[in-house]
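Hi team,

Below is the intake form for PLP-dependent aminotransferase family protein from Mesorhizobium album. Please confirm the fields before the structure is written into the shared record.

FORM ID: S-0412
PROTEIN: PLP-dependent aminotransferase family protein
ORGANISM: Mesorhizobium album
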Amino acid sequence: MNGESDLNWLSPLEEGPRPIYLRIVDALSDARSSGRLQPGDRLPPQRELARMLGVDLTTVTRAFTEARRRNLIDATAGRGTFITPGEPEEPILDLSMNIPPAPAGLSLPALIRTGIDGLLRRSSAEALLSYHPGPGSPAERAAGSAWLSATGDRLPVDRVAVGSGAQALLAAVLLSQTREGDTIVTDALTYPGLIALARATGRKLAGVKSDDKGMLPDDLEEVARRYDARVLYLNPTLHNPTALIIPEARRRDLARMAGKLGLTIVEDDPYSPLLTASPPALLALAPERTFHVATMAKCISPFLRTAFLVAPDSEAIERIAAAIRGTTMMAPPLMTGLACEWARSGLAGEITAAVRAEAQARQKIAREILPSGFASAETSLHLWYPLEGRLRSSELVDAARRRGLAISPADEFSVVSGVADGLRLALGAASSRERLGEGLRSLLSILAGGSGHTPPAV
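The structure came back. Fields below:
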């Protein structure tokens, strides 16, 4: 199309709860994606669009401003407004990144500045500026033991290691406990970091079936024997992506089955601090075979790339330390020092409580806006929406991206292709509750299929 575009892309504007200016942007984005508008097409003047739509000029001006921000259009003085040749900008609202929300009433940047300043005054510069490869200093390991004591009794320091985030410690466990080509059994939908780690290290994954209480012990036995697996990976508390909390009875059944099969258990536990009470950790139920990993990044801030690991015994820690030296070398001293200081002083617990309260408030917003069928827990950072053939997650992800939203489809979490389809929504990355509500209302419109019929709220 050359010259000024026609207005077919605006007719009709989709009905729904979103403001009119955003519906204009949606129509523009959809037309650009479908090819009805091509790079270089000129749009009519804003006043003409306002007159044809029966809205005031300010509404169209807001729409054009947002469209420019998304790199959908560009304006040239004296020539008009044109469709841009580049790709649209990344989504303006991220519902895909699973991070803790900024806690209300606390300024994390201020706490970080104050904490680092105090740490530099109290600590030896040589200690903070030197290499110290291995499982961490005695003081750091003691702080880790204190942080992990919520999972049970205070743990011996010689069974604790410190690492630069959960992924680094998970890598150390896999490298120390498995060989290239070995199979790790896990849920059919599992943490994407595990999928990436298995691929990078030449390990294989086998998916186990689940029900509404979590992994099925009988299927675990069948899959583990079929693949001669040596390691079982579980994320039993606020499971990623389904937000499931495996109840105590099922945890005990899984621990017994792991013992029967001689499996090493890797318990990935980033979210337990977000609960005021949770079932006993597998570390407490099967300490002789469990490697328990807990990061602070998911309950405080991604800034704190500090995680703690508990191994069955001190000999296993030595193997973990060797794997850390061969991969990440050590946990960064300054960041780890701050994390451990916060754990010792109780500030880490205070921040976590504030994050928990904010997560609860955001879950309430989601329940008020979204249709029934979303699985979550009261203070989880994410929700899961099983699609069960009604819609395809890949299509919904594309539609959401055109609306300026990022969401996570099932294939990011799938070990076994075609087992389940669904969407994971993360609630923490939105800059405010208001922005989160706007994004969820936009998603609601997508789920309604543009029919104008809004699904019932949860």
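SUMMARY LINE: The CA atoms of residues 205 and 255 lie 19 Å apart.

Thanks, M.
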